[in-house]
Amino acid sequence: MTTLRDELTPLIGSKSAKPLATALDIATVGDLLRHYPRRYAERGELTEIAGLETGEHVTVLARITHASRRQMRSRSGHILEVRITDGSRELTCAFFNKTGWLAKQLQPGRQGLFAGKVTAFRNRLQLAHPEFELLDEHTSDVAVDEFVAEIIPVYPSAEGLPSWTIDRCVQQVLTTLEIGEDPLPAEVRAEHGLVDLETALRTIHRPPDWEALRHARLRLKWDEALAVQLVFAERRMSAVARTAPVCEPVTGGLADEFDARLPFTLTAGQRSLGKAIASDIATERPMNRLLQGEVGSGKTVVALRAMLQAVDAGKQAALLAPTEVLAAQHARSLGELLGDLGNAGELGAAENATKVTLLTGSLPAKRRKQALLDAASGEAGIVVGTHALIQEHVSFAELGLVVVDEQHRFGVEQRDALRSRGAEFTSPHVMVMTATPIPRTVAMSVYGDLEVSVLDELPAGRSPITTTVVPVAEKPSWLERAWQRVREEVSSGNQVYVVCPRIGDEPPADTGSKRPPVAVLELAEELANDQLAGLRLGVLHGRMPPDDKDAAMRRFADGQLDVLIATTVVEVGVDVPAATVMLIMDADRFGVSQLHQLRGRVGRGSVPGLCLLVTEAVEGTKTRQRLGSVESTSDGFELSRLDLELRKEGDILGAAQSGSRSALKLLSLLQDEEIIAAARDLAQGIIARDPSLGHNLELAHLVTDLVGPERAEFLEKA
């Protein structure tokens, strides 16, 4: 008898188990059986080659159209070049040396599974020395009986682990599998039309037909949805144990004075959301609100009005930013917005003024000591900083409201630590802001009980932004034209950002045959000596001393630099109205949301913005499809949907922060809203009766297996 929690090595041997653990982090039977097929192929149905991505390990079912063997020019030996097709596009397979016996097998007209890493050679997709298994009737030396099913599972694979090897390990484990008690009670399965877990796992790996596969996937989606919602339900129950400081509005206070002085009219969205937040923080129930808004939609003003309400009530507010550059920018912006209302203790301050204090980890000792005193004494009504704000020796007089900007840039522990900085048995109100839009159904699924609010109305005066992909692999002259365009913008009195994925002061990582990413320091030197010679260039990256970073940003903002060559430290918050062009090198190395954030740095004045996405990605790959999406729309919410469709949705649950595998492998946050809603209701009832799942051990195991202890902790604190 084999259970899901059994180790793999005794069952399939170390020769098979070791590469599974090393390459795919698969150690138990459950890990292996939840390594679901990426897709399925029917015998005779070919794989769509156009959807392949360079750099990934793939298994394709294709037909051989051409095979030729020739002498290699640069070294001794032969190369066998085999072209395979899906009927519309070809993929080249290259085999080196000892090719004579291969040429006899790989004849045109034959069909097989080919597995390897996708590379680009002379702008064509290629598999270098792939493993293969031929599936037609001529095959005599391959175990075709492993592929007797009409529906062939194709697994996510890795180097040395082709799909058919994983398939054989799965079949070996399934022969002795016994699940035992099902985590989902029979009445729940009956109510929702779900098959039992063992049937679902057997079927998803060896489906007899497409209808049975649909039922298996439905059941396994339910398991994923319920595991996540059980964690959220526990979190919601424990949250009510703490109260928040009451921050009631004060007539004639700072907030009213600030509103009276505003030099512009608030949008309808800003006014409506402001009322909702004012109502939330006036109670002792901790506010947990996610504020989404496009770049430039006015989230900062909404946050400042809420912070002033907390200050009016005798409490403090903290604004946490992901980088020192952004923290300093926020402190300056708040100071400019408040004017003499934010200069308490200084000559000329308003009578009822508060103090805005910047606190970061690298402040000079004297300034840092004063900032710590301002926070601890309550002298500073608003404290702006980075992770330095949540260090244990930083104390507040009475923290009433925490605003977290660009929450996705923070570690979970950091956000949780700040949330718990209130007095004993209290928790400050929390508002997290992001300019990376998330579809509402996704946000409700991911953020549990956070109240999700959206600012989708841009203030007057924002200029349109045009985005263009610069495909240097196919059209190298376009990059030269891009640098000419930069010069034209500068000659018109405008400024330009150039963003690179790497700094350049570190040893480049081993990228195999691919060149290392473009680096800020290397590109800056090249541009200064060649394409942009004579222009005023500056550099900005995360490893510069804080004062140098601030000085570089100030010089750019003050118009003393024409071009700022930077890493993504300029991604959020930096506001330079004269900047009209955002040129992003190796744009394929950034995510859709990050590209959307970056281009939001331009078009902030009266002149239309231009975003140039420079890439060597080959046409027809998913990467180019991703960049094409950014080029085709400026709607952040539409892009977020496209981003989720193109990448693993489970990543949004924090895989990058927890270091573990994605929790969601089948569940679609966009398409399975009904399953998520039903699982949410079921989870709330279960946790209400059994908060620790002590009487539902199988469900507790389900949460541990699918969400994992690290991921469960992430979800509780997110």
UniProtKB/TrEMBL annotation:
Highest taxon listed in the record's lineage: Bacteria
A GO biological-process term: DNA repair
GO molecular function, one term: ATP binding
Helicase ATP-binding domain span: 280-455
Enzyme Commission number, as recorded: 5.6.2.4
Helicase C-terminal domain boundaries: 478-650
Reactions catalysed, as given in the entry: ATP + H2O = ADP + phosphate + H(+); Couples ATP hydrolysis with the unwinding of duplex DNA by translocating in the 3'-5' direction
Function: Plays a critical role in recombination and DNA repair. Helps process Holliday junction intermediates to mature products by catalyzing branch migration. Has replication fork regression activity, unwinds stalled or blocked replication forks to make a HJ that can be resolved. Has a DNA unwinding activity characteristic of a DNA helicase with 3'-5' polarity.
Family designation: Belongs to the helicase family. RecG subfamily.
Protein name: ATP-dependent DNA helicase RecG
Organism: Haloechinothrix aidingensis
Phylogenetic classification of the source organism: Bacteria, Bacillati, Actinomycetota, Actinomycetes, Pseudonocardiales
